[in-house]
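Predict structure. Chain length: 221.
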Amino acid sequence: MSDHERSSGTGRLITGIAWAVLLLGLWLWGREVTDVRHGTSAPTTGDMAAVGRPPEVELPPAHRPLGAALPQRVDIPFLDVQAPVVARGLDGAGAIDPPPFEQSGVVGWYAGGVKPGAAGTALMVGHVDTETRPAVFYKLSSLKPGETVRVIRDDGKVAEFTVDDVQVVTRDRFDAQQAYGPRQTGRAELRLITCGGNFDRASRSYTANVIVSAYLTGAGL
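Prediction complete.
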């Protein structure tokens, strides 16, 4: 949905509506994971469909997990993103409460879960846009396997993740464990999540989420 298709408050009114099915799936799975406030994104299609991994891409081996430390900034060189990270909890609907629209350039990290770089799956969410401009994850769906995501931590280390999967997850065939569960036991993994799919005017919500999966492949200072 573009700016001219909604009034100033519409984005906030539709917040939390689209992912009732997603949240139900997460509760059934036994974990409270995420919801993303709704913004604008390029139309995408598919149900748990990967955007695609070129067969020639060779991914590096996983790095051993790091100790626990708080994230401070996320750098995604391919998208020219350098964004501060803020800790977020759950809202009244049991979904991750992302940063407010006034902080559209900020990434929210689910502080009730795994710290980026530690073993397990760390979850980060970001807006696609506000009523007036693109936001931090506006081009998230353009990431490809092999691209780098760096998380600067408060212990002085930089956790370097390599993207291994980009998916568009639709509501009608959502599989919470496939979307958010660890892809390989024992690894340090990262999920970057924003809105995707088409805007459904009838339900006033988006039809999908974009989920980028990455895993730890290096650690620097």
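Summary: Residues 20-29 form the longest helix (10 residues).
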